[in-house]
């Protein structure tokens, strides 16, 4: 028979990236906290679930609609960066170097996993491009098979509208060693080299 601790462990284990040992560690941590701390944790989960929604413009997660990025009139409206997930938006924003708008696809093309064109926010992207004066679309999908396939598909569609399409550069991470890099990373680094 499952104990309440076992049930809690199983719920943590359902979270992405959480294995059995980490789930058990989190479950033990929670049950050892004061009831008030557990209530705060549960309230934070309920509040996030109730108040976070997808922006009607870019489909990023936000507590307001349109989201703060789409609402910010100081952003460069001539550029849209297309990403797979809301987490990708946050990662690019942390860099502090991009000041345009975003469009979140909510995945990448993966027919083997049942993810097709109609499962992503591609139709909304194309509608958005048709209703704006966007001059450049930056494709910032992951550099894996699915991300590359998605980027190629989108590039073909967007170029027919006469909009400039660029792809984020790939290469070695800062502090990485060339001798330990895989062939695909090295090929991307050489292909995307920059003038100094």
Q: For the residues shown, what is the average pLDDT?
A: 91
Strand content: 5-15%
What is the class of the largest domain in the CATH system?
A: Alpha Beta
Q: What is Rg?
A: 21 Å
Strand order of the largest sheet: 4-3-5-6
Low-pLDDT segments: none
For the largest beta-sheet, the strand count, sense and barrel status come to: 4 strands, parallel
Give the SSE order as H and E letters: HHHEEHEHEHEHEH
Distance between the termini: 66 Å
Helix share, percent: 40-55%
Count of helical regions:
8
Quickly give the CATH architecture of the largest domain. 3-Layer(aba) Sandwich
| Morphology call | globular
Specify the structural class. Answer: alpha/beta
Zinc finger (C4-type): 55-70
Protein name: Recombination protein RecR
Keywords: DNA damage, DNA recombination, DNA repair, Metal-binding, Zinc, Zinc-finger
Function: May play a role in DNA repair. It seems to be involved in an RecBC-independent recombinational process of DNA repair. It may act with RecF and RecO.
Structure description:
A zinc finger (C4-type) spans 55-70. May play a role in DNA repair. It seems to be involved in an RecBC-independent recombinational process of DNA repair. It may act with RecF and RecO. The protein is α/β, with parallel strands linked by helices. The protein has 2 domains: 4-51, RecR Domain 1 (Helicase, Ruva Protein, domain 3, Orthogonal Bundle), CATH 1.10.8; 58-167, 3-Layer(aba) Sandwich (Dna Topoisomerase Vi A Subunit, Chain: A, domain 2), CATH 3.40.1360.10. Helices cover 44% and strands 13% of the residues. The strands form 2 sheets. It has a 4-stranded parallel β-sheet. Strands 1-2 form a two-stranded antiparallel ribbon. Helix 1 crosses helix 2. The longest helix has 17 residues, at 35-51. The protein is globular, with a radius of gyration of 21 Å. 17% of the residues are buried. The mean pLDDT is 91.
């Amino acid at each position: 028979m499952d104990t309440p601790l076992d049930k809690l462990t199983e719920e943590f284990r359902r979270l992405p990236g959480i294995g059995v040992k980490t789930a058990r560690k989190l479950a033990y941590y929670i049950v050892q906290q004061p009831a008030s701390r557990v209530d705060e944790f549960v309230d934070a989960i309920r509040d996030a679930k109730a108040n976070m929604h997808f922006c009607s413009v870019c489909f990023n997660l936000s507590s307001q609609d349109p989201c703060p990025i789409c609402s910010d009139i100081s952003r460069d409206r001539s550029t849209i960066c297309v990403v797979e997930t809301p987490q990708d938006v946050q990662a690019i924003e942390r860099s502090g170097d991009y000041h345009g708008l975003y469009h979140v696809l909510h995945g990448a093309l993966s027919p083997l996993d049942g993810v097709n064109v109609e499962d992503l926010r591609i139709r909304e992207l194309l509608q958005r491009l048709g209703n704006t004066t966007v001059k450049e679309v930056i494709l910032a999908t992951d550099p894996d098979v699915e991300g590359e396939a998605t980027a190629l598909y989108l590039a073909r569609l967007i170029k027919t509208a006469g909009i400039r399409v660029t792809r984020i550069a790939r290469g070695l991470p800062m502090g990485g060693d060339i001798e330990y890099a895989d062939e695909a990373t090295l090929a991307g680094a050489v292909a995307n080299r920059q003038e100094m």
